[in-house]
Specification:
The chain has 282 residues and is mainly α. It contains 13 helices and no strands. The radius of gyration is 29 Å and the shape is globular.
Length: 282
């Protein structure tokens, strides 16, 4: 005589079911973890308004950060003084550690080594650029009513002049930045600089030009850095002329762009030019 088919315990409502049969069911039925109700709701419900990605730039996620501890900051700050003579090298880091009372082995606190010194230089110069504007850069070099393009030129040159003492070492820094593992942070730092320059210049774009302008400034600055390393003219006049021409050309191109396809094409060509400026084989 065949046994009647038994249902799982959680669905069985037969009061005659014996405890022996219950034990056999518990052994024979494989365990299935309960479904997470939160996952079930998130699968069917649309995302809330608070998590939607808006178009305006202020709602974009933050850039990747590279923060440092107090000990790392102390070593890196001291190491910057040795960059003009030793470059962005481990020797500069070691001397910085010695100057601040750390052992030579303390440079191992910096997981990216020499590249951390490059990143710290870039981030600290951006801070100095913002401080220069707060201290009256535009009241001493330009009039407050100057256009965004003129202020952009001034800010780019102000930032480039901060590299004057280490321009003979900057080719090595560019080589470090162009390594595949270092490119993401290098690009994020360059993007942060371009965004700072345009914000300090008074740019208030909220359409597609928000992206094209930042890509343009990034490409102009990256190219100007390469030009500056070869500039032997007094007061970087050759670099100044290069920046003026590139900013004027970029504005002329931007004024003629209309439509999404043209904007995307311009952004793509600018990104390729930016990569080639850093020595990437694109």
């Amino acid at each position: 005589m065949s046994c009647p088919r038994l249902l799982p315990l959680r669905s069985c409502r037969n009061p005659i079911l014996t405890s022996c049969a219950q034990r056999s069911l518990r052994v024979s039925i494989p365990h299935q973890p309960p479904t997470n109700p939160l996952l079930r709701r998130s699968h069917h419900q649309p995302p809330s308004n608070s998590r939607r990605r808006f178009y305006h730039s202020q709602h974009h996620p933050d850039l990747p950060v590279h923060e440092y501890t107090n000990s790392q900051t102390t070593i890196l700050t001291a190491a910057l003084k040795h960059v003009p003579h030793h470059g962005f090298t481990r020797d500069a880091l070691t001397l910085g550690a010695r100057d601040t009372g750390f052992l030579d082995v303390s440079v191992q606190l910096l997981p990216r080594g020499e590249f951390d010194l490059v990143l710290f230089w870039l981030a600290s110069r951006r801070g100095l650029l913002r401080a220069a504007v707060e201290n009256g850069l535009f009241t001493t070099k330009t009039v407050e009513s100057a256009s965004v393009e003129e202020k952009t030129k001034t800010l780019i040159m102000e930032r480039l002049e901060m590299n004057a003492d280490i321009k003979h070492q900057w080719q090595d820094a560019l080589a470090l930045m162009s390594l595949p593992s270092n490119i993401p942070l290098s690009l994020s730092e360059l993007h942060a600089l371009a965004s700072d320059i345009l914000s300090l210049a008074g740019d208030t774009s909220v359409d597609a030009s928000w992206y094209t302008k930042r890509l343009s400034v990034s490409a102009i600055y990256a190219s100007a850095e390469v030009v500056m390393t070869r500039d032997s003219s007094p007061d970087l006049s050759a670099t100044q002329g290069f920046v003026d021409r590139r900013v004027d050309d970029s504005k002329a191109i931007g004024d003629k762009l209309s439509g999404a396809k043209q904007c995307l094409g311009f952004m793509g060509s600018t990104a390729v030019g930016l990569g080639r400026s850093w020595g990437l084989k694109i």
